[in-house]
Amino acid sequence: MRRAVRALTLPLWALATLAMPLALWAAFLLAPEERVMGAAQKIFYFHVPAALVTYAAVAVLLAASIGYLWTRDRRWDNLSRSATEVGLLFCTLVLVTGPIWARPAWGTWWTWEARLTTTLLLWLLLLGCLMVRGYADDRDLGARLASIVGIVAALDIPIIHKAVVWWRGQHPVVFAPDKSESLAPGMAAALAVCTAAFFVLFALLLLLRYRVAALDERLHAAAEAARGREEIR
Amino acid sequence: MIPVGFARAAWIVAAKDLRLEWRTWETLSSTLVFSLTVVVVFQFAFGLGTVRELGAARLVPGVIWTVVAFAAVVGMLRSLQLERARDTLGALFLCPVDRGAVYVGKAFANLVKLSLLQALLLPLTAVLFGHVLLPILVPLGLVCLVHGIGLTELGTLFAAVTTRLGRGEALLAVLLFPAASPLLISAVKCTAAALAGEPLATVSRWMLLSAGLDALYLLVGLATFEFVLEE
Amino acid sequence: MTAPAESTEAIRATGLTKRFGSVTALDGVDLVVGAGQAVAVFGPNGAGKTTLIRLLTLGLRRDGGLLRIAGLDPRSHDREIRARIGLIAHPSFLYDDLSPAQNLEFYAAMYGVPEPARRARQLLELFGLAPRADDRVADLSRGMQQRVSVARALVHEPPLLLLDEPFTGLDAQAAERLGELLASLRRRGRTLVLVTHDLRQGLASSDRWILLARGRIAGEGASGTTDVARFESDYARLGGAAAGPSA
Predict the structure, then answer these.
(1) Which residue of C has its CA nearest to A139?
(2) Which residues in chain A are closer than 8 Å to B174, comparing Cβ atoms?
(3) Is residue C119 part of a domain?
(4) pLDDT below 50 — which residues of chain C?
(5) Neighbouring chains of A at 3+ CB pairs within 8 Å?
(6) Please, which pLDDT band fits residue B59 given cuts at 50, 70 and 90?
(7) Phi and psi at residue C69, in whole multiples of 5°?
(8) What subunits touch chain B, counting only 3 or more CB pairs under 8 A?
(9) What confidence score (pLDDT) does residue A230 get?
(10) Which residues of C touch B12 (CB under 8 A)?
(11) Does residue A228 lie in a domain region?
(12) Residue A2 domain-assigned?
């Protein structure tokens, strides 16, 4: 397992190093400028992929949480923790890029419209998961409780989204099946490139964080063992 | 010994919690005073002019459910914390019953206590904000019940989590409010409809959503409560 | 699936292991306790005595080894085992704001005792608590609270009684009363596992003893033939040599 993880790291680094500049190129040069909003609209190519990655992180969190409760294998917990942190990072990105887009587009930094509100709530839930881990003295207890909160959070997200949509509305609908106009080909291509790049970045960050967590654990184990040996003397 | 079935075990636990409340009135007194204080704070927060302008029907749903949400945090935390003092939670864990029954029992007792609080709170807001109560008692009661069930199911589970961590209201609020947001949104919508005299059928999708959430949260609670109690 | 016939062994543990992270609290402990036997468990702090008790109550999951209680496997007969065990430990496991009668009735009901109220009253009479039966537990003296706690452990007449440092904090009179109770339970064929620092009481209340140190059995013997005075001086050496950090 450790071998496979280590083997993937360098290739992912390389891929990400190529992908991100490619994403920048795609967003600013490949994609045509939008008629109404102009250059400000370009943040769309970072905002949407970040949101997609956040949902992917939540999916990983759900799977890893169930995995941990089922097997009690610490590796699932390391994955769960990594997904939570990386998910929180990308969620923050969504919450920051949203207002940056909203200001020139709608004239206001924040609106309580459906997706932004849902994302804010998701952000709070992910933060809650981290707090639960942080407050636990015992590693296993923290892992168990965070898994439970993680499962509730992940299952709740689609429900929160639905509820908030019913409550509000107004988010720019980009891919409406019934809409006559859809994304211009250049825009669609740029979005695809950026999304792929962001997912590569997500995989890399997840992998790195996982390795740090695994290393941290080995360090603790070694410290405990050393402490144990000292007492015999 | 007769093996203790799920329903019976849940009932014994709920009865014990309610008996404790009957002897001490601890939860109701603290949550009621807390609620009263918060309602008064809302009056200052909105100002008399705003209250008169917006009218009770638009303000009261939000006020009620904000108060109920915070009071629920206080009350449910207490219900779990009282099991810490002499490790009675550990003793419960030793009993030959389904651990899910302990969850259902505590959640049910919390529901009864919350409903009692709501029963006292609604006449209070009727007086303070000047809205009708008796004609809409049934729909309002139904809304409070359906949403109270979901709130106590989620709250009991999260309260157990925060109690295991030795933390208090702050962490429980951080966990519960985002997770219960669909319920709270629905509660405010349905309460607003009831106060406006509209039949509940107009908000049927919200009521159905809440009923669905009640079922979902119950399943999640039943599945995971045992892991909170473990070790 | 029908439960297996009642075993003559109250406890069979082979290679029992429990780890907390990188710390091994119990390392391959073998323990066989026949029905009706009384075993005292001695050892310094951090030796794993409480971990052993918690594994026997099924409060902890073992990491390795075999465990059978009354011939039953905890993995499949979890509830049947719990119904056969009573625990007396440092916390009282009582609801301070309820009365002794209400506490006992609650636990009796939870253990499936028929007519819980009657059983509660019966126990209260037995333990001399009838006059205070309806007062708040918090209003009772420490000694009385301890008696209610012991009654609580016996409410379902468990064939196996586990005791984790029951003599700690008791005055001489209360300790003597507890010792008498244990003797009476032994006479009636109950199985006892008693963790204690009190060597005299431990030896007096048991048929045999084991010494735990650093998660392993470091010694054992028959209580009847063990000289208390010599044991006390040896204990420091046996336990002291392998003393570990406090748990």
Answers:
(1) C21
(2) 124, 127-128, 131
(3) no
(4) 1-5, 240-247
(5) B, C
(6) confident
(7) -120, 120
(8) A, C
(9) 63
(10) 106, 109-110
(11) no
(12) no
The Cα of B9 is separated from the nearest Cα of chain C by a number of Å equal to 6
Nearest beta carbon to residue B167 from set A135, A149, A156: A135
Do C21 and A221 lie within an 8 Å CB cutoff?
yes
Q: Which of residues 167-206 of A touch B (CB under 8 A)?
A: 167
Sign of CA dihedral C144, C149, C154, C158: negative
Give the SS3 label for residue A55. helix
With beta carbons less than 8 A apart as the criterion, state whether C165 and C45 touch. Answer: no
C23–A contact, CB cutoff 8 A: yes
Give residues with Cβ within 8 angstroms of C197, minimum separation 6: C42, C165, C167, C168
In a domain, A134, yes or no: yes
Q: What residues of chain A lie within 8 A of the CB of B213, using their CB?
A: 159
Q: Which two tokens stand for residue A54?
A: 């956040």
Residue C177 lies in a domain: no
- As a whole number of Å, the end-to-end CA separation of chain B is 26
What is the tens place of the pLDDT at every residue in A1-50? 778 888 888 888 898 888 888 888 888 887 777 777 777 778 888 888 99
Q: Strand, coil or helix: what is B51?
A: helix
Q: Does C60 touch chain B (CB under 8 A)?
A: yes
Q: Which domain holds residue C45?
A: 1-84+158-166+193-247
- Shortest distance, CA C237 to any CA of chain B (angstroms): 33
Domain that holds residue A160: 8-31+42-171+184-222
- The first and second tokens of residue C191, run together, are 């199985």
Domain membership flag for residue C131? no
User: CA dihedral defined by C199, C200, C204, C205, rounded to 10 degrees?
Assistant: -50
Would you call B224 and A121 a contact, using CB atoms and an 8 Å cutoff?
A: no
H helices of chain B, in order, are: 6-24, 26-54, 56-81, 88-94, 99-129, 137-164, 169-179, 181-195, 204-229
Tokens of A195: 């999304």
Any CB–CB contact under 8 A between C246 and chain A? no
Contact A220 C20 (CB under 8 A): no
* Domain containing residue C235: CATH number: 3.40.50.300
Q: Count CB atoms within 10 A of the CB of residue A94.
A: 23
Residue C229 lies in a domain: yes
Chain B residues in contact with C82 (beta carbon < 8 A): 94-96
Over residues A138-151, the pLDDT tens digits come to 888 899 999 999 99
**In this complex, do B86 and C91 lie within 8 Å of one another by their Cβ atoms?**
yes
**Count of domains for chain C:** 1
Facing residue for B87 by CB, picked from C91, C97, C106: C91
| Number of compact structural domains in chain A | 1
* Matching residue, tokens 């026949």: C34
Q: What's the pLDDT at A169? A: 53
Model pTM score: 0.87
Secondary structure in 3-state letters for B74-118: HHHHHHHHCCCCCCHHHHHHHCCCCHHHHHHHHHHHHHHHHHHHH
| Residue B142 Cα distances to A76, B114, C100, C164, angstroms | 42, 14, 38, 50
d(CA C221, CA C199): 13
Is residue A1 assigned to a domain? no
Q: Which of residues 59-118 of B touch A (CB under 8 A)?
A: none
What tens digit of pLDDT does each residue of B153-171 get?
999 999 999 998 887 778 9
Q: Chain C contacts of B13, Cβ < 8 Å?
A: 110
Asked if C23's CB is within 8 angstroms of A221's CB, the reply is no
